[in-house]
Amino acid sequence: MEAQVTAFLHHWGMVPEGAVRDRLLRTGIGGSVARCFPAADGDGKRLIAETFTWFTAFDDLHESGPVAPDTAAVVARLVGALDRDDRDPPGHRGDRHDATVAAFTAVTAELRRRLAPEQFTRLADAVRGYFLAVLWEGSARDVRADDYLTMRRHLSFARMLPPLLEWSTGRVLPADLHEAPAARRLLTRFCDVVLLFNDLVSFSWEHAHRGRAGDLSNLIAITARDAGCPAEEATATVRTLLEAALDDHRALRATVLDGAPQAAAYLKALDDFLAGLLSHGLPGRYGTGPGPRT
Known about the structure:
Structural class: mainly alpha
């Protein structure tokens, strides 16, 4: 899988040679997809890995900080590419974002072909939420913890995961199940587990490499600022929030399964993802190991 990620980056050339590409290749996206999406077949894993390679690369290229004019412009182009129904690549403008837009168009066109229409609609909505959150992150100042949590669910890619996990099972769940209150709360807590875990394992790296810019995009730093406490105490607070989110997720999972036995494969896919994430960590990206609990 890692060879496919490397081939994808080389084919599209959206990340120039250098430290950003080296870190991206160390992230281990292919291995993470293999662990976290075990129900997907080989070609499905390849497409999911290419999808998250694109988003991770975009995230690295447009890291925390004030929104640059070209970031806002390329986001508009990407949303336009996502909204088009003809699935044709956008016309090139001869700027440095051409490769980024072309790679995104190709990946989303394949996702549109492969996913069920309702799955792709949910995925596209999550992608638009991610782009909105990118612009928010670049303009937000003195971020409140509750606002941060709301937007971080989008920035952590977490809302993109459930449609892809559902697709990996080979089943399409009815819309009324997705809209059931317990299922919606389950999705929120699933996202919280992903974002809280990411903030725990990324804090030291972000603070060391981004300074104040990193502090704006991590709940540990925001908690330490608001409570006036050391980072170690704030880390313990965020760890407790992760434990609570995991407990809520398990309870809501049982509620959803009781009311909709047909959701068993989808719920197992959510479980498999979290098990793969929490047990392995993101050592290639942040130099850290597993989280506090599997």
